[in-house]
Amino acid sequence: MWATNAKIVALSLAVIGFYTLVAHIIPQLQSEVPAQVAVGPGASPEELAAAGERIYSTVCTACHGLGTRAPNLVTDHEGLGPIGARCLARFGDRCKDYLYHSLTAPGDSVVPGFANIMPDMRTQLDANQIWAVIAYLQSQGGEITVTSQDLESAPAQTAQPAAAAVLSATTDPRELLREKGCLGCHAIDGSGPPIGPPFDGIGSRLTREQIREGILNPNATVARGYEQFAGMMPPNFGDQLTAAQLEAIVNFLAGRR
Amino acid sequence: MTELLLLVQAAADTTGAYGHFPLIGARAAVWIAAEVHLMFAAFVLGVPMFAVITELIGIVGKDPKYDKLSKEFTRLLVFAYSATALWGAVLVFFLTTLYPRFWGHLTQIFGLSMWIYVGLFFAESFTLYLYYYGWDRWNAGRSKWFHWSLGVLLNVWGTIVMFIANGWLTYMMSPPEGATAQGLPPEVTMWGAIANATWMPINIHRLLGNAVFGGTVAAAYAAYRFLASKTPEERAHYDWMGYVGNFIAISVFIVLPFAGYWLGREIYAYDQSMGITMMGGFMSWLWVVQAVLIGVLFLAANYYLWIGMQRIPGAERFTPYTKWMLLVLVVCWIVWATPHTLIVTREEQAAMGGQFHPFLDVLGVMSAKNTAVNLMILTTFLSFLLYRRGNKRLTVEWARQGTMVQGAMFVIAAVVVVFFGIYGYFVPDTVRIGFSVYQVLSVLACIVGVTVVDLFLTRGAESKGEIRWGQMPERSQYALFILAVTFTWLMGLMGFARSGIRQHWHVWQVLPDTSPYASTPALGYAANMISLCVIVFLGLVAFIFWLGGLAERAFSKEQPAPGLSPQPAMGD
Amino acid sequence: MNRGASYYLKHPFWQAVLVLLASYVLVKWGIEYLPPALGSLVSLITEPLGLGRVNWPSAPVPRSIVVQYMLTVMVAILIYVSENEERWRRFKEPIRAVMVEPSLKNLRVALLILFPVLVGWATYQQAKGTVSAPVGLRTIHPAAPTQFTFRGRTVLLSELSNPLRTTGSLEEHYREGMRVYYQNCLPCHGDLLNGRGHFAHGFNPAPLPFDVSTIAQLSEAFVFWRIAKGGPGLPRESQPWNSAMPAWENILTEEEIWSVIVFLYEQAGVEPRRLTEEGGH
């Protein structure tokens, strides 16, 4: 019987071994994880631009890719070339400052013909990622002037910290809605982009409690009809607003019946 | 947008999201636990299906042989059942400790269904115990039917349990729209997450696969007992059991590719890039390995049948045909396993004038492969038919015409398959895709048509002599082992394909894998893991079978077997 | 022991040996020479009928394929001889005889020496160093990316189609493509589009021919991506030897690339593949 057992074991192992061998003879391909878009100090301009391209193609092209909601930055515009070339021509050395400004305070430089819908990108990206996007934009026809000093000057790798630096103490709800970039997505007074549900009439749709919940934990519930934009609203307004500011906004919105 | 936010978040909270497993690493630990659990589960779900069917045949046909076989299947089940639960527990503990964040995500969504799952486990266990231990108590008249319905109930529980678990794992492949790392959007219920795009195809695919798997393992068990048996009666019984296991396995196996085709379509429909990864991307070579394995399955199954024909009086008249069937099978296998991109050296490449061989390239494309597979299925079916016909002398007056009709069906199906196979080269691929459907339909139609004709044809057929069960050379039993090992390995390979196409996602495009094991390994590494799992599984199964024999021997010493005297060593 | 040829022809062992040898000849040389020969034969009929010459090309068979096929044949032979009890017994006869028969002692000794030597020689052949490059395991048609950047512009492959198919005269595009081809592609891909230009022999991997087996399997968007990105743009699975093809986006304009694609498909006489869900390897 032991001879039979040994034969069975040997046969099974031989069959298993044969299949393993076949799988080893053929090309060995491993599917790699795409590189994470996290840039740290010491990144070269090229690395920055490459990382920025990835960020740009995932974050920005939702609006900038189509050229309808926002201008397409990487194509030629009125014969002046893509964004890097135009920016270099217009601002020279100050190009990167201009780009930084338009990413962090986009309302100040809205291209004619487009609505002011872009949020302050610091709510979406950390400082290094913003610099990476700038490097990528500069690489489009211009030259990359972002250096690692820009990176090091920013607190490294902390998600959305920079917003704290520009916090104002105002409790004027309209001021706050503008400053926090709410109006980048939500319409008010009948005008504005339709990315989030409009603020008009929100007080009759939601209770005070729901509004507060919606600001502090925006991804918990998604308004009907806005599923495609689920997850876009930054989940960190709780850190950005003081209690007084939050209550001011809640009161204001609850009053808009 | 959401993707990037997720990446950022993931980078932030990777700490605490993953545990560490010594020596082999977390992924390998979970891999082994999941795969071995799955193999046992497949066995435990597959065997009741035909335990119930054989019991029914026994009741209706009043043949105690079948009832005994059914009980023996069920005995394997009792042992394998606890192994399944054990490995399931190992898997859960590994997941909670090694992938806590991912597990938290799943429990948050599927918590309720997990409780139901556990509850059903109780129901299943108690039904199984009642079914097995009540066998002799409820063995006559109406109580036998009650006993049989217990078996049906066992299947129902098992199927629901599997469907629930399939809901979780198909959610990982094809989560419903709007799902995020935080959970489901409010408009999607838990049911919506369970009944996702690939749920039903996987359910059906696994249901069929389990039946095949249960059949092959049961056949291997019979083969082992055959080789170990000391009396001719024992040999006869286990020879017959091996035949039944193999018959079930191969007949279900024939339809398995169609279920796989459906699953593939659903994956493509859900996310094209996932489908491309599967068929054309880094996984494409996997299908060459699969071709090798399935070729072995077909050949081993036919080999077993051909050898078996020697113990059928009258089957000698068919032996001259086997070499031609072998030729068809081998040529088809060669065609199927010919890769599109060849492995060549620099010199050979220069001689060929490129990476493609101008002639062999013709065999590398889909048309040729579909044709080959369909012809292999037809040939295997023919083997079965000849085996069945072996000791029968037809007595119906239209026997000759009937056989000719059957032959014509085969020829028509083969011609249709070959015609579309060749014609496929001359049409654009959008048209060609439809051809595979015609090929499959003609083969299925042939199988159904021939079987129906055969049922009427063999009515009242005279026997040329009883099948001499037990008079089987030992070689044939080793073919059954090859079948079991190959199918187990194939299951491991297909499991790798299914979960590997998710690549670096725990939940496709929802929850990224940020562990050090996020990249999907190459086939060589996967093959090592699969082989390891197969060895662990088969080793445990051998142990369980051995235990079964031990218990049986101890039991039969105490009291002689009641009733079924021809097989004394099989006492209950 | 003097037996006639018919004895050996009917003996399973010698049948097996014969089949093995015949299969080897068929695999090693049959695949290489039979299709062209058959093509010529068929041409004898088709040419007088005015149907033109039939050309069934073939080439030497790579070793990996020979090994694979011969393994399969060996398995089949083993199945054949062992499938029948009587045949299996007779098959083993000569093997057994060589092992134990006193009269065959010389043969036995010779085999016992020869066999290890043969295994050793095969091992040596496998292990010895050669000057040739390791076996190339590239994927010729790599999985295309979903998008790529063409001159700084992000292009989605699934939305890419040949604009020249709908604008202007195809005839003109074809002529323009011909000019582009003969100015740029000819040195490698050859005058006959068969991948055998003047430079071709120096490259590994060799330049691809344009025919049914290559571009007919591909969509125009895929071809555009390959031309624009060339060897440097190949994904990882196409390594280790990326092709020497330049990234043409730096040299040709978008229109020029599209026109040369028009030329290639027209010249090869095939239709571009439309995007479908069919996979394959």
Question: Gist?
Answer:
With 257 residues, chain A is mostly helical. Chain A contains 11 helices and no strands.
What does this protein structure show overall?
The complex is a heterotrimer of chains A (257), B (572) and C (281). Chain A has helices at 2-25, 45-64, 83-91, 95-104, 127-139, 148-153, 173-179, 202-205, 208-216, 237-240, 243-254. With 257 residues, chain A is mainly alpha-helical. In chain A, helix 2 crosses helix 5 (127-139). Residues 154-167 of chain A have low confidence and may be disordered. Chain B has 18 helices and 4 strands. Chain B has helices spanning 2-12, 26-61, 64-98, 100-133, 141-173, 190-194, 199-228, 232-270, 272-279, 286-308, 319-337, 346-352, 361-364, 366-389, 399-423, 429-457, 474-500, 523-558; strands at residues 392-393, 462-463, 505-507, 511-512. The longest helix of chain B is centred in the middle third of the chain and has 39 residues, at 232-270. In chain C, a hairpin with a 2-residue loop joins strand 1 (147-150) and strand 2 (153-156). Residues 275-281 of chain C have low confidence and may be disordered. Chain C contains 8 helices and 2 strands. In chain C, helix 2 (12-46) crosses helix 3 (63-82) and helix 6 (170-189) packs across helix 8 (254-268). By secondary structure, chain C is mostly helical. Chain C has a two-stranded antiparallel sheet. Chain C folds into 2 domains: 5-127, no CATH class; 147-268, Cytochrome c-like domain (Cytochrome Bc1 Complex, Chain D, domain 2). The interface between B and C is large, with 68 and 60 residues.
